[in-house]
Amino acid sequence: MVDLVSIITPAYRAAKYVGKAITSVQEQSYPHWEMIVTDDCSPDETREVVARYAQRDRRVRLMAQITNQGPAMARNASLGQAQGRFIAFLDSDDWWLPAKLERQLDSMRRSGAALSYTQFRRVDQDGGKEGRLIKVPDRLTYRMLLGNTAIATSTAMVDRKQTGDFQMTKTYYDDFALWLKLLREGHAAKALHEDLMRYRLLQGSVSRSKINSAAKVWSTYREIEGLGIASSSIHFSRYACNALLKYARF
Prior knowledge:
Low-confidence stretches: none
Strand content: 15-25%
CATH topology: Spore Coat Polysaccharide Biosynthesis Protein SpsA, Chain A
Helix content: 25-40%
CATH superfamily: Spore Coat Polysaccharide Biosynthesis Protein SpsA, Chain A
Radius of gyration: 17 Å
Number of domains: 1
Shape: globular
Order of helices and strands: EHEHEHEEHEEEHEHHEHH
């Protein structure tokens, strides 16, 4: 039986980059996928760009939010239409290498992991300059992930046969909150030590504000996970150290 992979892509002001993301999916060696791109009321031509790809390839589907609600709700709109056993996440400004789906599916079938993630490299805004390889730990438990930045959204894949259906929480780090929820429930998260994704660094991106990001991680501990101040402080210290190591050099 062939397993369908549903690819979840929120898009906002992505007209310049989303075509690269879609093309990288179309170039996958594994052909059994659907890509559901939800435009979150972009003021640019994001919707028109995605529509052109969807007209040429029925595996690409465009959804459109009526109001701007943020990436978590855009992901939920896509998830609501997803038909695949496996859910893969790809942000509109990132892209995959051609063997990503094939290699990651094979790894998950062998390991039995409900959640998997891969290595990747950062690239500059124009996509021409590649950074160093970002390595990842072999596995992650709930407690380990609380103090780690290892799972990049566009590398993640979830097996819904194991986890059941899920939705994103409307919070700043909705992806981090989901990984924590799955691990808290006892699901296994394992790495594929292969370089399979490119993460684009955009100038002025909200996620590039370290102070803001740190505050949102703390908020995740306290408001989403319900951790006390002492426990939050311990995990935050580990998270900050790992983030410094990860972002110390390009």
